[in-house]
């Protein structure tokens, strides 16, 4: 007789490994996402997070909005910890544009090859 596996997840997970910063009341940790859904994120960090801890996760997003870089900011609570992996249950998220100074598409005067544009 075969066992039936019941999927309890409500949201589709996407296997994305992206740079992330985790802000807690104790400071900031760097990490990497393992997967992301609209319901949360699974992160790997160098230090363990505490179960139940409230966090704000800043994720460098691979897509752009016209010429602006984006980051995903997700607020939530640590709901599972397995070694260096922590599952964050999202209570809210939003995309934010990156500051002008960190936009890789912007070339400032004097930083190019010295040529002139003629168009």
Please explain how this structure is put together.
With 119 residues, the protein is mainly beta. It has a domain at 10-57 and 75-100: Thrombin, subunit H. 0% of the residues lie in helices and 53% in strands. The chain has strands at residues 19-24, 27-37, 40-45, 54-65, 68-82, 85-97. The protein has a 6-stranded antiparallel barrel. Strand 5 (68-82) and strand 6 (85-97) form a beta hairpin. The radius of gyration is 19 Å and the shape is globular. The protein starts with 18 loop residues before the first strand and ends in a 22-residue tail after the last strand.
Rounded mean pLDDT score: 82
Q: CATH topology of the domain at 10-57 and 75-100, what is it called?
A: Thrombin, subunit H
* Spatial strand sequence of the major β-sheet: 1-2-3-6-5-4
Which oligomeric state applies?
A: single chain
Shape: globular
- Structural class based on helices, strands and sheet pairing: mainly beta
What is the CATH class name of the domain at 10-57 and 75-100?
Mainly Beta
């Amino acid at each position: 007789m075969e066992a039936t596996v019941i999927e309890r997840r409500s949201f589709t997970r996407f296997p994305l490994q992206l740079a992330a910063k985790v802000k807690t009341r104790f400071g900031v940790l760097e990490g990497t996402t393992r997967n992301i859904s609209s319901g949360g994120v699974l992160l790997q960090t160098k230090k363990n997070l505490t179960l139940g801890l409230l966090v704000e996760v800043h994720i460098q997003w691979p897509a752009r909005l016209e010429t602006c870089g984006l980051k995903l900011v997700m607020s939530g609570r640590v709901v599972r910890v397995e070694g260096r992996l922590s599952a964050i249950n999202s209570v809210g998220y939003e995309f934010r544009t990156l500051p002008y100074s960190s936009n890789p598409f912007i070339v400032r005067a004097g930083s190019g090859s010295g040529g002139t544009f003629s168009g």
